Hints:
CATH architecture: 3-Layer(aba) Sandwich
Number of domains: 1
CATH topology: Rossmann fold
Bound molecules: NADP nicotinamide-adenine-dinucleotide phosphate
Distance between the termini: 52 Å
Strand order of the largest sheet: 3-2-1-4-5-6-7
Oligomer: single chain
Order of helices and strands: EHEHEHEHEHEHHE
Mean pLDDT: 97
Amino acid sequence: xxxxxxxxxxxxxxxxxxxxxxxxxxxxxxxxxxxxxxxxxxxxxxxxxxxxxxxxxxxxxxxxxxxxxxxxxxxxxxxxxxxxxxxxxxxxxxxxxxxxxxxxxxxxxxxxxxxxxxxxxxxxxxxxxxxxxxxxxxxxxxxxxxxxxxxxxxxxxxxxxxxxxxxxxxxxxxxxxxxxxxxxxxxxxxxxxxxxxxxxxxxxxxxxxxxxxxxxxxxxxxxxxxxxxxxxxxxxxxxxxxxxxxxxxxxxxxxxxxxxxxxxx
Length: 265
Ligand code: NAP
């Protein structure tokens, strides 16, 4: 397949963690990838976005880095423009970029500043990035440039699990969950599939500071599958969706959490 015939994925926050796992898996599956991250230093190919570019090239893929903040309207516009100009299409959008609050604060003390920061990156960013990309996808479908575009929202078990020391994160992810449903509904007439993936506790830089706590909880029986999740566990579901195996499940949520969400007695 020539470069221009390969499907194209745009993965936000792909410089490390779950986004990295998704980007590399999609490249292995035959996608070209736009690696978005908020920090990206071309001089550093050992960590971050340019390391991911190198990893994709090592499996024979084509990847380009685009540095942008998903919370910025100008950044989102530039990112989609870059993907369109460079690759000519986006077949798969993966809304992955997200942050935890800088400080875990009880909801009786948490600040509006933190609320606004978390909501703008975790919810407003993917909500409006999807609006931009969806409109492009509709136009590309009409022009025959894409055949079966798809969109993924990475939410979290926090969308339906109370953690009172990071309420703003939980609310942002509950919003992401509804965004997935809304776009699945609205884009159904165009055949654009939308999937929500809710990771459980995944071993990434985001969870590295609280790993000990989670290791203890898992050893104590929190999960059915007694281990932390890996980015590859999430990437496997994105891959199945990208390959069309979940096309009759638009608008649904798949938890990748080792059985976290199952009520047990
Ligand atoms: P991570 O290790 O912190 O990686 C997140 C990536 O997103 C980083 O590369 C980060 O860049 C980037 N990013 C942050 N803010 C951004 C912005 N404004 N614009 C563009 N990129 C931005 O986190 P992760 O654990 O892989 O999490 C990925 C997604 O999964 C998040 O949405 C998270 O909420 C969700 N999730 C994670 C877990 C888990 O257990 N790890 C569980 C459930 C859901 P910098 O590092 O350069 O800031």
